[in-house]
TrEMBL record:
Keywords: Oxidoreductase, tRNA processing. The keyword Oxidoreductase applies. This is tRNA uridine(34) hydroxylase. Residues 135-229 form the Rhodanese domain. Its EC number is 1.14.-.-.
Length: 314
């Protein structure tokens, strides 16, 4: 993938460029770097979330083409991030409310000490070669994402661990001895970062042939023609687009602002759906007190819209 934003333009995809990025590197100065990065992003009108930790950087940002290019150039000017690559897509409207640069213990939280993708990691598989690998009967395909993500899309015949958070993944692996029944393990996630740690963990657990999709689902959907694709459904993304499909076109899902679960058109017609208050996935688990609180928040959001403003909780 080219580092130049101009190489993958989606001319009819929307006015805003969305850049998903991560890079593992030894980065002990991450705390002092925070304010400088935040200032560069804001000066360029860029919004989104970037996570900084001693192990590197991770996040998604959006803005004008020039703004995104300037922020990426600034990051690649840092010795630790000279090799940083990104995946880009388009959005018809700004998909983030504000810019956040956060300091973290890990840039993707697995919660297992000593897992270092700079030291050991699985074998990268290019999107063009992914279909052959996951169609091999000697391969077990594992989706490393969480249940609300897999609910709207997954690769054909993939194993879904049904995890609520990535922290549950190591225990799921340890409790599934059947994973040793086939020689090859193929893993994938949204943009590739979770698989960096997941494949490193699998190697540490004694699995030999461990592979992961380079660039994740996003790169696969961008590169592989829909007629050849083994992807079924849409891919959840962590911004206001909610999902993307083949060619990285914006999907049709919306988000329940009570539980953050992606909703289909059918979900929205359910009697358990109330905008900003509940949906079929969370209605029965909420009290009436909860719903009244959400209704008040939704009322404030509606009033802000009438004023032509954007409510911070919307």
């Amino acid at each position: 993938m080219s580092d130049s934003l101009s190489s993958h333009r989606h001319e009819d995809g929307g006015a805003f460029c969305v850049a998903a990025l991560y890079h593992f590197a030894r980065f002990p100065r991450f705390e002092s770097f925070r304010d400088e990065l935040d200032a560069v992003a804001r000066d360029n009108g860029v919004k989104g979330t970037l996570l900084l930790a001693a192990e590197g950087i991770n996040g998604t940002i959006a803005g004008t083409d020039a703004g995104i290019e300037n922020v990426l150039a600034f990051l690649r000017a840092q010795p630790e991030f000279a090799g940083l690559v990104h995946k880009e897509s388009r959005a018809s409207k700004m998909p983030f409310i504000r810019m956040k640069v956060r300091l973290k213990k890990e840039i993707v939280t697995m919660g297992v000490e000593g897992i270092d993708p700079n030291r050991i990691v699985g074998t990268y598989v290019e999107p063009k070669d992914w279909n052959a690998l996951i169609s091999d009967p000697e391969t077990i395909v594992i989706d490393t994402r969480n249940d609300y993500e897999t609910a709207i899309g997954i690769f054909k015949n993939a194993v879904d661990p049904n995890t609520k958070t990535f922290r549950e993944f190591p225990d799921w692996v340890k409790n599934n001895t059947g994973l040793h029944n086939k020689p090859k393990i193929a893993m994938y996630c949204t943009g590739g970062i979770r698989c960096e740690k997941a494949t490193a963990f699998m190697k540490e657990q004694g699995f030999d042939e461990v592979y992961h999709l380079k660039g994740g689902i996003l790169k696969y959907l961008e590169d592989v023609p829909e007629e050849e694709s083994l992807w079924e459904g849409a891919c959840f993304v962590f911004d206001e687009r909610v999902s993307v499909t083949h060619g990285l076109a914006e999907g049709e899902h919306t988000l329940c602002h009570a539980c953050r679960y992606p909703l289909t058109a059918k979900d929205v017609t359910s009697e358990k759906f109330e905008e900003g208050v509940s949906c079929p996935h969370c209605h029965d688990g909420r009290t009436e007190e909860d719903r009244n609180r959400y209704r008040e928040r939704q009322k404030q959001i509606a009033l802000a819209r009438k004023r032509g403003e954007r409510h911070i909780g919307g």
